Every structure is written in structure tokens, then in C-alpha cells.
Amino acid sequence: MSEHLDLSQVNVDELPVVPNPLLKLEGATIQFGGLIAVNQVSFEIMPGDLFGLIGPNGAGKTTCFNLITGVYKPTGGSIKFEGNEIAGFNPSKIARAGICRTFQNIRLFGALSALENVMVGGYLRHKTSLLSGLALWPSAIRETEELKEQAMQLLEVVNLTDVAHARARDLPYGKQRRLEIARAMATNPRLILLDEPAAGMNPQEKEELKEVVLRIRDEFGKTVLLIEHDMKFVMGLCEKIVVLDHGEEIAAGPPSEIRSNPKVIEAYLGEPV
Amino acid sequence: MNLGKFFAVRGFSVAVAILGCLALDYAAQTYLQDYIVRLVFLAGIYITLAVSLNLINGITGQFSIGHAAFYMVGAYTGGTLTKFFYDASPLGAVAWLIAMILAGAALAGVAGLLVGLPSLRLRGDYLAIVTLGFGEIIRIIVINQPELGGSSGLGFAPKVQGLWLVWLLAVICVAVCRNLLKTSHGLAFLAVREDEVAAQAMGINLTKTKVTAFVIGAAFAGAAGALLAMNEGYINPDLFKMDVSFLILTMVVLGGAGSITGSVLAALTLFAIPELPRLLKIDVSLAYLIGLTAGAIGFVSLLRHHQQRYHGPKAKGRMITVATVVGVPLAGLGLGWLLHTFTYLSDQTYELNNLRYVILAVTLIVVMLLRPEGVMGHHEFSWKWVQKVLTGRKPVAEESIS
Ligand SMILES: Nc1ncnc2c1ncn2[C@@H]1O[C@H](COP(=O)(O)OP(=O)(O)OP(=O)(O)O)[C@@H](O)[C@H]1O
Ligand SMILES: [Mg+2]
Q1: Closest CA to ligand 1's atom 11
Q2: Alpha-carbon dihedral of residues A159, A161, A164, A166, nearest 10 degrees?
Q3: ipTM associated with this complex
Q4: Do the beta carbons of residue A126 and residue A95 sit within 8 Å?
Q5: Residue B182 near residue A144 (C-beta atoms within 8 A)
Q6: Which of A110, A132, A266, B66 could form a disulfide with A137 if both were Cys (CB 3.0 to 4.6 A apart)?
Q7: With left for phi above 0 and alpha for psi between -120 and 50, is residue B103 left, alpha or beta?
Q8: Bridge partners of A28?
Q9: Is A151 helix (H, G, I), strand (E, B) or coil?
């Protein structure tokens, strides 16, 4: 066909712009023994999306994150990031490709300070060699200083400047959750995955968190995929939502549709929200 | 940063380190008895061994307990090469010694690579078993190798004593670990220790980090081994038995896993405890022994009770601690003095030398009961830290750069 197409006749500006999806799951599946934790899940996340992943306990949401970030290798299907297959890559490679996450059961570097935790996030972009570090060469010192400055700025975004030098383990729960977000942001990802970022927060903290997530998207231009059980939070924040139940995708769409979807109401919401 | 100034400062500190070690060497050889020179030599070796194991164990969190294996690889590399190649080489004694240090470090580094690789799959106890097993395997191989002297050991000439090189090695080892923790590179190692899953999610290459720690740690131990071999002119497999591994491990744990200064202090203390009584040649009577034992038991139980039960004001708490630390051992001594009036108890005397392992064991028990995280915990010794401890403010995340 293409032989007959005269490219000079095509006006590029008039072609509809179809952006490529940032993340594309196609039939992603993982089976643990007899249990299919994620079953044929497919969805697309566009650059700049604020995307929600919801569903009852044990639906397979965290497992989905684990597939995307390489903690588990899918037993079927494909996961493409910016058009490249990433299924089965190891987690550090995926982080370096531009996907970073937070953990549902907080996993900070407990004995390190809040600032150092965020600095670890920025480490994957380091340029100086280990040798220059061991020799305490000026380039290594400079890079460390730069990392520290960037980390300080991110701590400001999540409003943790005052506890920068406190040990991560000693911080209260809500601050630990925000610290995890800052640490993930420090890797400078294109896609950031937040696993129940509002869990255990009081209403005021949740409002602040909402602001932070919006800033991450609007100011820093990150694409966000988040898991959350607080429906008010998800519906008020996300623009697109996918619903999982028993590992299967039962609905997808904007909050208004999800809210009134009978399947979702039956499986998860209980009553219309 | 101003580069000219940097090179001036760096050049100066390197020169001070080298001259300092040379001065120590000269002073020791001139003023000290041979036996004590040997102790100074071994102290430098043990500092290197403890600090290098701390890199693997304390900083990177890989529970390796067979450090003597790397020490042995270095020693046998130095010994064997000297035995077979020294005569044919054009190098002078000191140049040869330096070459042997590098060779020992290189081969031990390779051994570190071999042992480090399983650490990717094995955690905790399992890794410990592998590292310990590796040490035993190396030892058994050597015992069964007539070319390496078998179980009766390997003799070679010349002996080259490099006291200054031993201490220079210790200084370099401490500096390398400290530098690591001062830059962002160190954070990667600490992150692996704290949480492997999170470290990987942050893009840290687990394999590279763990194996690097093993290779560097093993290389320093190997260099120490080569120095030991060249100092003695004779080595045998018994010098590298499991108890040496355990002694090094104890130094790291006692000093506080992850703390470089802690490892140095613990290495010196644990090394000195069995050696000092031998030097002092003191006899203690049963009376004092009873008094001091009572003092030690009272010390531990009172301090533990205080640690666990006291909730009053900080300043008062600190005063009670100081009073216990000073008062109870003195009270023990006093009790000994009183008991000394009974002839039965004062006639019975023991050489302190024979009790040295008892003293070592008691020290370990006391520290582990009172400070299970090690004397220094995760902290480094610094004047700022001392100030904070004395003024009672809790030091926050002293451990590295911030
Ligand atoms: N490594 C594993 N081995 C076996 N089963 C697993 C494993 N990981 C997850 N599962 C199972 O997969 C199912 C989905 O778990 P997942 O943690 O993804 O749920 P979730 O949707 O995140 O739930 P929650 O809202 O409670 O966090 C659960 O039944 C869980 O027990
Ligand atoms: Mg979950």
C-alpha cells in the first residue's frame, strides 16, 4: 500500500495527534500456584494522566504494581513503557527506565535521615565513579552536594523540611508516607506509582496530600498511577479509574461512570457514592 | 571547590599519614621491645580486618562471618610468591613487600567476588554459613597441598617487617570507608543494608553494590594477610581458624555494626584485653577476684535496671548512670580490699595472664547486656557526638553525611 502513498501530499499539521501511551498493559497475568492474582488486565495510561486503581482487599492492585515495577515477572501478557516491553526486567532497571513507586507497607531506609532517604532516590542518576567517592575526589563531593540540594527541594514539596535530619524510622506515619513520595520523586520518574498514599492519614493530612499529588502532576509534569481505598479521595483526584476484583478488570472509565457502574457497586462500593 | 586548595590539603594529609606511620615505625623499633613492636604490628592488622569486615557486615548489611578466609588468601599469596619467586626477582625487600601486599589484595579480592556472588540469593544465616564454609574449605585445601606446606606450614625468606605499611594500610582502610560514607555512593550501600527491595526500587544495582562491598572488604583483609606473612616468614593454616573469624566479627558487633570508629575502638580493645595482662604480669588474689566479680554483676544489673525502669528527668538519669559506672566497680574494689584481710582469700592468687580470656568473655557479656547495638551503635565518634551525648541531646542520623 505504502508504495502508492505520496508523502508529499500529506499535510502533517492536519493529521490528528494521537499520543502514544506511557504505560500499556495487555493481558497482564500472574499466577501464584493455584491463585491467579492478576488475570488478563489491560489498560493504557497516557502521559499526564492522574490514574486510579481501585478494588476490594486482595483484588490484585499491589500485585499489579509489583508486575509493573519488576518485583514479579508476569506469567502472561505484556507490559510496555514508552513502547518498550519491560515485563520481567529487574526492579532497578525499571526504576532507571523511569518508573518509581511507593510501598503500601512503608519501606523507608529506617536508620537513614529523611534527607538521606531522598538522596538515595537521586542516586540512580549519579555520574561520578565509585572510585572518586572512595578517594573523596572533588567531583564526588560536588555531586553529593547537588544531590543534597535536590533532596532538600523535594522535601519542601512534601512539606518535610523541618524533619530533614530526623531518622526516617522516628517519623510519624503520615510523614513517612510523604517521605516515600519524595524519595520516589527523587528518581525523576516519568511515571510514579503510589500504593495507598492516604492510608492512615487524617482528613486534613489527606487534603494536603491531594495538593501534593496535584503538584506532582501539574508542576512537575509526572504521570501518576495510584491505589487508594478512600473513594472520596480517588474520585476527587483521579481522572480515569480502573477497577479490579479477584484479579480481573471489572470496569474502567472516568469517576462519574465508575460511581454508577452496577458491577463496581456490587463488588466494591456497596452503595453509590 | 577550589581545586588548587583541594590538592594542597590532600597532598598534605597524605604526607602526614605516611610520615606519621614512618615515625611510628622508627619510634617503635628504637624504643620498644621486640615483643611490644609485634603487638603494635598486630594491632594495625586487626584494625584493618575489623574495619574491612565492617564494610561488608555493618555498612552493607551482608552477614559475612568468614573474614579470616580472605586474610588467609592474602597471607598464602604473599608467602607462596615469596618462596618461589623472590630470589629471581630484581625487587628490593620493601618493593617486594609492597608488591606482595598488592598481590594478596588482588587474589583476596577475587575470593571476595566468589563469596559475594551467592549473597545475591542468600540472606542472613544462610549467607553466614556459606562464608564460614568458604573459610574452612580454603583451609582444608591448603592443609592438603604439600606445595603450600600442608598442615605443618609454609616457611619462606626473607622476612620483611613493614610496621609502617601495616599502619598505613589501616589508615587507608579507615579513610576509604569514611570517604565512602561521606559521599552519595555510601548511601547506596547503606540503602542495601536497610531494605533491599526499596533499594532496588530506587534503581540501585543490588548485585554490583553487594559484590563491590565483598571485593573491597576482602582485598583489605588480603593485604593485611600478606603483611602478616612477610612479617613472620612462616605461616600455617592454624593462624586462620574459625576463631580468628569470630574475633573479627566480635570486634565489628561490639563496636557497633556500621560504625567505623566503633570497629577501630573495639579492635584495639579486644586485641589489648588478652595481651595487656600478659604484659602487666600482675597476680590477683581470690579476694579481689570475688570483689571484682561482684562489682561486675552489680554493675550490669544496676545499669540494666536503670536503663529499663528509669523514666525521671534526663539530667538526674545521667547522674545515676555516671554514679553507677564509677561507683560500683570502686565498690567492688573496696569489697576486694576488705576480703583481703582474710588470709585464706589473700593467699590464694592467680596470674592475671591466665584469666585473660575470662576477662574478654566478661567484657563481651557486659557490652551485649548493656548495649546490644554495640558500643557506638550506628554512630561515629566525633567531638560533636560527644558533646551531644554529654548535653543529652539525642544525636540524629549521625551515621553519614548530613
Ligand atoms: N507472592 C505472592 N504469593 C502468593 N500469593 C500472593 C503473592 N502476592 C500476592 N498474593 C495474593 O494475591 C492476591 C492479591 O494481593 P494484592 O496484595 O495485590 O491485593 P490488593 O489489591 O493490593 O489488596 P489490598 O487492598 O488489601 O492491599 C491476594 O490474594 C494475595 O494473597
Ligand atoms: Mg495492596
Answers
A1: A37
A2: -70
A3: 0.89
A4: no
A5: yes
A6: A132
A7: alpha
A8: A41
A9: helix
**CB-closest option in A95, A109, A184 to B194:** A109
Contact B184 A119 (CB under 8 A): yes
Pairing assessment for the beta strands A35-45 and A23-32 based on DSSP bridges:
antiparallel
With contact defined as beta carbons under 8 Å apart, do A191 and A216 qualify? Answer: no
Q: Does the beta-carbon distance from B176 to A142 stay under 8 Å?
A: no
Beta strands A76-81 and A23-32, pairing class: antiparallel
Interface A–B counts its CB contacts (< 8 A) at: 140
Q: How far is B401 from chain A (nearest CA, A)?
A: 8
Residue nearest (by alpha carbon) to ligand 1 atom 2:
A32
| A253 neighbors A232 (Cβ within 8 angstroms) | no
Instruction: Decide: B290 and B338 in contact? Cβ < 8 Å.
Output: no
Contact B391, B375 (CB under 8 A): no
Which secondary-structure segment (H or E) carries A53? strand A50-54
CB count within 10 Å of CB B11 equals: 10
Amino acid B123 reads R
CA A233 to chain B, closest CA, distance in angstroms equals 26
Euclidean distance between CA atoms B2 and A263, whole angstroms: 67
Q: Which amino acid is at A125?
A: R
| A66: closest chain B residue by CA | B201
Please provide residue A270's backbone torsions phi and psi, each rounded to the nearest 5 degrees: 80, -55
**C-alpha span between A117 and B307 (Å, rounded):** 30
Provide the grid cell at A185.
520523586
pLDDT per residue rounded down to tens, chain A (273 residues): 444 555 556 565 666 666 789 999 999 999 998 899 999 999 999 999 999 999 999 999 999 999 999 999 999 999 999 999 999 899 999 999 999 999 999 999 999 999 999 999 999 988 899 999 999 999 999 999 999 999 999 999 999 999 999 999 999 999 999 999 999 999 999 999 999 999 988 999 999 999 999 999 999 999 999 999 999 899 999 999 999 999 999 999 999 999 888 888 888 777 655
Q: Look up residue B42 and give its three cell numbers.
A: 598486630
Are B309 and B324 spatial neighbours (Cβ–Cβ below 8 Å)?
Answer: no
What is chain B's length? 402
Residue from B196, B302, B282, B322 nearest A109 by CA:
B196
Which structural domains are found in chain B, ordered by start?
Answer: 15-279 (1.10.3470), 282-371 (no CATH)
Q: Are A61 and A54 in contact (CB under 8 A)?
A: yes
Q: Minimum-distance ligand to the CA of A53?
A: 1
- Residue with CA closest to ligand 1 atom 6: A32
Domains defined along chain A, listed by start:
19-98+189-273 (3.40.50.300), 108-187 (no CATH)
Pairing verdict, β A240-245 and A248-253? antiparallel
Element at B83 (helix H, strand E): helix B67-85
Q: Which residues' Cβ are closer than 6 Å to ligand 1?
A: A 32, 35, 37, 55, 57-63, 104
Q: Which of A96, A141, A148 sits opposite B203 (nearest CB)?
A: A96
Residues B327-358: b if buried by 16+ CB within 10 A, e if exposed: bbbebbeebbeebbeeeebeeeeeebbeebee
H helix intervals, B183-205:
184-194, 196-201
Q: What is the 3-state secondary structure (H, E, C) of A26-51?
A: EEEEEEECCEEEEEEEEEEECCCCEE
Cα-atom radius of gyration of chain A, to the nearest Å?
Answer: 21
